[in-house]
Amino acid sequence: MTSQQTFENFSQNNQETTNQNVDWSEVHKFEALAERWWDTDSEFKPLHDINPLRLNYIIQQSGGSIAGKKIIDVGCGGGILAESLSAKGAEVIGIDAGEANIAVANIHAKSIESSVQYQQITAEEIAAQQTAQYDIVTCLEMLEHVPDPSSVIEACATLVKPGGYVFFSTINRTAKAYAFAVIGAEYILKMLPKGTHDYRKFLKPDEIDDAAVGVDLKLSHTIGMHYNPLTQSYWLDKGLDVNYLACYVKNQTGAVA
Length: 257
Known about the structure:
alpha/beta; single chain; 8-stranded mixed beta sheet; 39% helix; 8 strands; Rossmann fold; 9 helices; 257 residues; 23% strand
C-alpha cells in the first residue's frame, strides 16, 4: 500500500465519525488547559520555546519580511504564533474550533493591545467564505489532531493567494518520533500531558506532499525541529524524522476547485 493510500484510508476512516472535520475529544483536551496557554512554565512551555524558531522560519521562507502581509493562522490555539506574526507587522486572523481557546486568545490580545482578530471556525468553513484572500497561511502542530488532514490541507490551499505561502508543521510517523514525542515528552520528561499525541495520527512528509500537490501547492522547503533534553534547547536542521516544518507555494496559474 502506498503512503497516499494509507493517508487516504486514515482520513476516510476517521471522517466517518464526525460531520465536521473536528475531533472534539482533541478540541476539549486543549480547551481544558486553555487558561494556561500563556503560562510559559505550563504544558504549553514547548510551544513558547519553539515559537521564535517557527516565526523566523516563516519570515525567511516567505521573502524576509511579513510586514503588511495578510496572514491566517489555522488552529491558532491561544494565539502564541498569531500574536508574534502580528508583532512583525502582519495583518493576522487566528482561527480555532475551540471556544475556550479563542476566548483566551482574545483576552490576551486585548491585554497587550494586539491587533490580531480571532474567530471560532474550522478551516473548511472559512475557506468556503474567503477563497485566495491570504498572502500566508500557517497551520502548525494541528494536522495531527484532526480526523481528515487532507481536508485541512485543501482548505489552506483555498485560502492562500496564487504565489502565496502555506506552512505546515507536524510530527513524523516514525519509531524515533514515537520514542521522542510520546514516550520521552509525555512519560519520561513530562513536558506534555499524557495522551497529548496519538502516534497513529502522525504524518509522514510524503503524505502531506501527496495531498498538497493535488491542490496546487508546490513544496518549497522542509526542515526538521530538534530538541536536546540536557540543554533544554531547540533548533532547526536537517532530519525530518521527528518534528518538521514544510513550506509550500501556491501555483501561480492553478486554482482550487
